[in-house]
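Per your request, structure below.
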């Protein structure tokens, strides 16, 4: 009996350790975000050089960015609950703004490209302001970086 309870205890400790390790593991979404950040920098560089081809090539990587796997989406959805529709709306706004940016590059009008780029940045910011802190607190148990 004593041995059994020791076994149960060590199994529980093991399970806790595993779930803790999982909680701290970065989400695929974070990798997607890092890529978005890099692509935004490439676009800034493209604008500085008036390299509209580079901007046109990079905008779709933001508009059609990869998505996290289904299992992770389920975790995100269960955390978001009713707020999931707001989260999705911010995502849609970002996709649309990136599409508009692509169209602006076709005219090779620098000011229009900058205006469209600013809308993409605002779309990123809206979601971050609303969701990033609670998201990071929930999935990593920290107050953010
Ligand atoms: C629908 C919501 C949403 C939108 C839209 C969004 N993000 Fe994020 N972003 C997040 C969340 C949530 C995190 C925190 C993810 C994490 O730490 O796992 C994040 C984190 C980040 C990070 C930090 C990643 C790191 O190294 O920890 C960067 C960079 C980033 N986003 C860039 C962008 C850019 C650029 C855009 C727009 C093109 C964008 N995001 C649009 C929700 C969003």
């Amino acid at each position: 009996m004593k041995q059994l309870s020791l076994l149960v205890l060590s199994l529980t400790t093991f399970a806790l350790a595993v779930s803790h390790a999982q909680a701290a593991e970065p989400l695929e979404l974070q990798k997607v975000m890092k890529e978005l950040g890099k692509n935004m920098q490439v676009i800034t560089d493209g604008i500085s050089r008036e390299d509209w081809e580079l901007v046109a090539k990079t905008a779709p990587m933001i508009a059609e960015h990869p998505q996290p796997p289904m299992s992770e989406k389920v975790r995100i959805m269960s955390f978001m609950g009713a707020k999931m529709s707001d989260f999705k709306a911010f995502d849609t706004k970002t996709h649309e703004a990136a599409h508009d940016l692509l169209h602006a590059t076709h005219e090779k009008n620098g000011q229009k490209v900058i205006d469209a780029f600013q809308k993409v940045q605002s779309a990123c910011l809206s979601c971050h302001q609303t969701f990033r802190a609670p998201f990071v607190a929930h999935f990593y148990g920290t107050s953010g970086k």
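The mean pLDDT is 90.

Regards,
D.
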